[in-house]
Structure formats: structure tokens, C-alpha cells
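Fold this sequence, please.
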Amino acid sequence: MKKIFQNWGPVLVYFILIFIGSSIPVQVKPGVDKVLHILEYGLMGFFTARGVLLTWDLPKVWGCLLGTLMAGSLGVLDEIHQYFVPGRSSSVYDAMADFTGALLGALCFVMLGSLLYRSDKLYSRPHDSCC
């Protein structure tokens, strides 16, 4: 149980923060909006790829793909949620920006994970072969 929370806790906590933040009506300039979506879901893609690769023994490509799909799906759920929030808008382009950020974040984890998890910087004990 500790391992599941250790691997997936950041995803859960971060999604709760996104959900709370997207419940607040805010007006953002159209170009800046997409950049924020990419950054926001880039971190989510990083966390989901981390969760996937630390939980299951998958090749990096599959971990990146599954992490991207999970984070992007959470982005779509958030867009549906924003549709019902007064003062917020929902768009397909926002969801596309979410998927783009998720892919970039998942790729970052795959690249950084190779360095961090093999060098025992995050875990001092022997650990699943992540990256």
C-alpha cells in the first residue's frame, strides 16, 4: 500500500489541486491560456509517467504513452468540469494543449528518470527497474 501511494500520491494530490483551481472563475488571455495548459499538464504527465513506470515493469515507450494518455484523460475530465463552472470556458483546443503538455512531461520523466532512479537519488534501497 505504501508503494502505491508513493507512486501515485503525487498524481492524486496534483489533480485535486488542478480541480480546485479550475473551479475558480478566471479570465486569461487566449495565447497565455494554452501555455498554462501545457505547463500544468506537463507536470501531470511527468507524475503519471512516473507512476506507471514505477508501478509496472514496462518499456519506456509504453510508460510514456500510458502516462500521456492518463494525464491527457485527466485533462479532458477537467475540461468537462470547467464547462459547468460559471465564468470558465471549455474547449477542444485546451484539451489538445493538455495532451501536448502531458506528452512533454512524460518524455521529461523518461529522460530524467534514467538519471535519478539509477543513481539512488530518490530511493536509497534497491528498487524496481524504472528507466
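The longest helix spans residues 92-118. The chain has one domain: 2-118.
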